[in-house]
Amino acid sequence: QWLSDRKKRALQKKDVDIRRRIELIQDFEMPTVSTKIKVSRDGQYIMAVGTYKPRIRCFDTYQLSQKFERCLDSEVVTFEILSDDYSKIVFLQCGRFVEFHSQHGHYYRTRIPKFGRDFSYHYPSCDLYFVGASSEVYRLNLEQGRFLNSLQTDASESNVCDINPVHFLFAMGTAEGKVECWDPRTRSRVGLLDCALSSVTADTEIDGLPSVSALKFDGALHMAVGTSTGQVLLYDLRSSNPLIVKDHHYGLPIKSIQFQRQLDLIISADSRIIKMWNKDTGKIFTSMEPEYDINDVCLYPNSGMLMTANEAPKMNIYYIPALGPAPKWCSFLDNLTEELEENPESTVYDDYKFVTRKDLENLGLAHLIGSSLLRAYMHGFFMDIRLYHKAKMMANPFAYEEYRREKIRQKIEETRAQRVQLKKLPKVNKELALKLIEEEGEEQQVTRKRKQKNMPSLLKDDRFKVMFENPDFQVDEQSEEFRLLNPLVSKISEKRKRKLRLLEELEAQEQEEEEEPEGKASDAESSESSDDEKGWVEEVRKQRKLLRQEEKVKRQERFKEDQQTLLKPQFFEIKEGEEFRSFKDSAKKQKLMKKTLEDRLKLEEKLGTLNVSDTTVGSKQATFKLKKSEQQKKQQEAERQHRQERKTLRRSANHLKSKRGRGRLFH
To answer: Which tens digit of pLDDT belongs to each residue from 618-643?
Structure first.
């Protein structure tokens, strides 16, 4: 937070973790401070109010961006979304104003007699109930468009109010620490709870009279009350005593209470901490302390997402997978949270150095603790990297000698690395392993020059481990494919075989590292490398000649075996539906199959079953006529006779029609 904007941008380019940070909704913030945040009933829109200047911003979760922004005349105390989307909104403002907005924008504005602090909407009667710096509860009917008779209470002032979503009981929290419950149908008070007296327990220390600062219904029978001294009381409406009392231990007013029904949790928040605890046992589930003070908390319905309005421009979004799944508009969070590490690496800044108290004592800078040159962080301090280098030079003047010795040691290790190192080769495919080792060394030299990343070695890859362990994967160098596709393999393999022999001798004799047995092999390589290009054609011819001789020997052996075998008579069974004609057909087919493709094409052209023509591009086009079986011929003959009969019937019908027409005309 104490880095400049320029340093932050530079850090964002360098640090991969900062670049990978997820921004769920674009520009999810306010100019200075956000005071209230709510979600529409359809879950598509998130609305927040803040300053400065007073404004409301609506964010569309389907587009992950801001939908609209409207500036207001005065700051908003609280607001309510009356419709399923953003088309009907009511704002309670500081100057006793009540402002109505429709889908297009500002719709109507009116005032209430006293300053308001909270309001609730009664859906069955379309009444708005306003509470504030007065003993009266003002009612504004939206259907008739006028104020109704107020509700007269015993309280001097009221802070919060809420309406039960099941039986529509109206409850209001007073400055005296009491909760009054009213029936909207009879406009009479039906209950009174003294929360101030119930919140005082043996463990709590209270300076003044607790007032009610938060109120929330859960279902038909439960109600949670938050006090200005930091206690949360859970009531059953059938009893005047609380079921459980939870203390935040900060002495700050409770600002928001939410219910999480899937895990039976209550989410209560003051300006400093958000606590989640079980409503039956009071056991803490988890707690969060944001960096800035909290003004409001909103739980996204049926999910584990939590949003807060803070005393800062940025509105925070928290996702807790244990509370529930991610919303459908950001379902990818479920996959990301599984891949995240529990212990991320700490960020290291280039222009700051982290030092502990012991490091400061070694550098002689312990007297700077508490000054602006050191910034306390965790178990140490951040200090400027330039100051650190200067102090280190003064504290250790022989640092250059240590640096020089380290460089000399590195040079000696590099020269040792160039010597021959005994490498243990696998039992299977030794030549292939040696080839891979040589190629790996060449690739490392290339990557050093080009400053590229080294590719993983095939020998160290577990997927190809069996190729160097199982004898079934041994390369057969005597096979025809290997010898034809690799005409120079013989010479290259000879070089590798020499190296293998040398390595085996070195392993057997256990010679010292200083000996260099590869000198002879390197001389051989240099003398033979010039002959590789000249002898390539001769090597190919030699391989082909050897293959022909081997093929000739195999043919002679097969001919001898055929002469030794005695021919026995064989009987064949004719398939159903076929007729036996003679052995000449099979003999003709065998003779035809022995002919070349060119001779067969010429024969088929004479018979008329094949037509070959040249195309405009220069290629050949062949058209085939398939031979018809006896069954197909019979079927075609039957179809031809059927068509002929239909033609004769059609002609006779036309002849009769023409005769009838002539008879009528004559008559």
So the answer is: 566 777 666 666 677 778 888 888 88
Our CA angle for 479, 480, 481, nearest 5°, is 95
User: Confidence band (pLDDT; 50, 70, 90) for 107?
Assistant: very high
pTM across the whole model: 0.51
Distance of alpha carbon 459 from alpha carbon 465, whole angstroms: 7
Interval 515-528: pLDDT, tens: 444 444 444 444 44
Cα 422 from Cα 507, distance rounded (Å) = 7
Token representation of residue 69: 């922004």
Domain that holds residue 398: 347-413
Whole-number pLDDT of residue 54: 93
Q: How far apart are CA 229 and CA 206, in angstroms?
A: 7
Given a cut of 60, whether residue 512 has pLDDT beyond it is no
User: Hey, what are 147's tokens?
Assistant: 């104020």
Query: For residue 243, which amino acid is it?
Result: L
Do 191 and 112 sit in the same domain of this protein?
yes
C-beta of residue 38 within 8 angstroms of C-beta of residue 81: yes
Q: Are 72 and 93 in contact (CB under 8 A)?
A: yes
Q: Mind listing the pLDDT tens digit for each residue in 268-304?
A: 999 999 999 999 888 999 999 988 899 999 999 989 9
Smallest CA-to-CA distance from 209 within 228, 234, 230 is with 228
pLDDT band at 150 (very low <50, low <70, confident <90, very high): very high
Evaluate the omega torsion of the peptide bond into residue 53 and state whether it is cis, within 30 degrees of 0.
Answer: yes
Tokens 């160290």 correspond to 460
Domain check: are 298 and 361 in the same one?
Answer: no
List, in sequence order, every residue forming a beta bridge with 71; answer none if it has no partner.
55
Number of domains in the chain: 2
Task: Write the single-letter amino acid at 41.
Answer: R
Other beta carbons less than 10 A from residue 245's beta carbon: 20
Estimate the share of the chain in helix, then strand, then coil, as percent rounded to the nearest 5: 35, 30, 40
Instruction: Please list, in sequence order, all residues whose beta carbon lies within 8 angstroms of the beta carbon of residue 127, skipping any fewer than 6 positions away.
Output: 121, 139, 140, 141, 142, 148, 184
Residues 153 and 217 in one domain: yes
